[in-house]
Amino acid sequence: MPALLARSALGIPRNDDWSYLLTTFRFAEHGRWYGQEWIGKTFVAQALVGAPLVRIFGRDVTVLHLAVAAAGVVGLLGVVDLARRCLDPARARFVGLVTAATALWAILVVTFMTDVPALVLSTWCLALGVRSIGSERLRRGTFVAALALGAAAVGIRDYAVVAPLVVVGVAGWARRDRADRRVVMLGAAATLAGAAALIAWTRGLPGWAPNTPVAPDAGVVVTAGRLALGFGVLLGILVAPAVVRAGPVGIVRAAWRTSSTASIVVGITVGAPLLVAAIVRWGTSAAWGPGNLVRPEGPPGLDTAAGTWRPDLIGDGPRLVVALVGVASATVLALAVVAAWGPARRALRDPRRDRVAGALVVGLTAVLVPATAVASASTEWSVAFDRYLLPAVAPVAILVLLVGERVGAPIGRSTITARWAGSVALGIAFGFGWLLAADGAAMDAARWRVTERAAARFGLDAVDGGFEWTDFRARREVWASARPARCVVVYVERAVAHPRAPVVEVVQRPLGVDAEVVARRIGPCAEESGP
């Protein structure tokens, strides 16, 4: 499905694709690493997998895009397998659909970005880890396989270290047999040492540009708070179908029965700041969180073309509704913690710790992934991207469905109502997410085609087509550094009845205003190189 929606953009470097592709091409052809002064993640494991495809098919970007899409299918199976450790099969499949419904998934699964490959490996690390822990004796082969997949995930994105660390942490807590604990300790030591060595090694590779964390200060705390509010609204939007399916009314009632005081404090502490943030930002590109892919003007927003003003895909009214859904959903998630507090404490005292290993693995992952995203972004460069939350979607959805089933489950007809309401919410989420994905693919393809035609007419060195096109052609990062003056710049703006530029393409949008991609001359050019 994403391949069909993005068919016009297949084979086109999108977002950070340009650098990952060039690095993989160079390694496959020359056996050398170079990150174009752009790559800030470990990435090498992804290049190792992609290199054989380059050797077989050459520099075919479409092949690499489709390879990630195929891996994405395996990743969704891993999501369902992980969910089945905690939920019944129907709810587990629902979690897989919730993940696939997000715009993050639909956009990234047909690119060569690192997010989906790292998620695939991390998810199966968690799923196999729960399988190995959730039995009377540690399944050592499965445990080692889980850590191996976790190590491979770290070889793509350093933040993926959360998954193997959670697995070894829960295994160490759950296992009481000395032999099993020795295996766990050895696994923990190997994971930490391997991750540290890999991260240190990649930081020394030529052309790698990892971000160096700054010392925490008051500014970092303020930034972390701002990013946490944005991530909270976005996470609420992404998992809203699961919240609806879990029965939000039942969860709120269960939280109130557990502690009315805690429910009021948590509801106000979480809901009020998120509501204020949503109202303050609702007329901006940050209405739904940090931005980059999930934005009212459509992905990837204003980041990829010079001089871009992009008309909104989602109008002001629907934009506010989506933000308020995120606030309400995130508030219910916080109240679900209150509702589950008592049962969770009793479960952790269960002498058969393997019985709760799955829920504990999922719960720690659901907390640590957003926390790591906020901490890393606030201490590195004060900017976060919404795609950092992709690994948190499934764990959070699993948790809220588990809480709804155990402490706030509706009974009788309410169960059927919740199921149908969840299905409707899931359908809306699919429409919303895949609308953004289709619009982003169409816009990226139009920008690329317009830039290529302008380059054929005015010359490669005369055209500024945005950082993807410019850097991919230059085979190095030139977006942030001093770029040579270009006499033709590609713009995205509101479509008009009569084109005003020599190279133009109109993107038809199912909602909002049609967009016009134009290559406009802003200065004198040399003799045109084509007709």
Could you list some keywords that capture this structure?
single chain, mainly alpha, 19 helices, four-stranded mixed β-sheet, globular, 4 strands, 531 residues
Give an account of the 3D structure.
Helix 2 (17-30) packs parallel to helix 19, helix 7 (115-133) packs antiparallel against helix 16 and helix 11 packs across helix 16. 63% of the residues lie in helices and 4% in strands. It is globular. Strands 1-2-4-3 form a four-stranded mixed beta sheet, with helices on one face. It is built from 19 helices and four strands. A hairpin with a 7-residue loop joins strand 3 (503-507) and strand 4. The protein has 531 residues and is mainly alpha-helical.
The shape, in one word, is: globular
Order of helices and strands: HHHHHHHHHHHHHHHHHHEHEEE
Q: Major sheet, described briefly?
A: 4 strands, mixed
Count, helices: 19
Report the structural category: mainly alpha
Report the radius of gyration as a whole number of Å.
24 Å
Summarize the structure.
With 531 residues, the chain is mainly α. It has 19 helices and four strands. The chain has helices spanning 2-5, 17-30, 44-57, 61-84, 89-101, 103-108, 115-133, 140-154, 162-174, 178-203, 218-238, 240-246, 248-258, 260-281, 316-348, 357-380, 390-406, 413-458, 467-474; strands at 463-464, 488-494, 503-507, 515-521.
Layout of helices and strands, plus pairs?
Blueprint: H1 2-5, H2 17-30, H3 44-57, H4 61-84, H5 89-101, H6 103-108, H7 115-133, H8 140-154, H9 162-174, H10 178-203, H11 218-238, H12 240-246, H13 248-258, H14 260-281, H15 316-348, H16 357-380, H17 390-406, H18 413-458, E1 463-464, H19 467-474, E2 488-494, E3 503-507, E4 515-521
Parallel strand pairs: 1-2
Antiparallel strand pairs: 2-4, 3-4
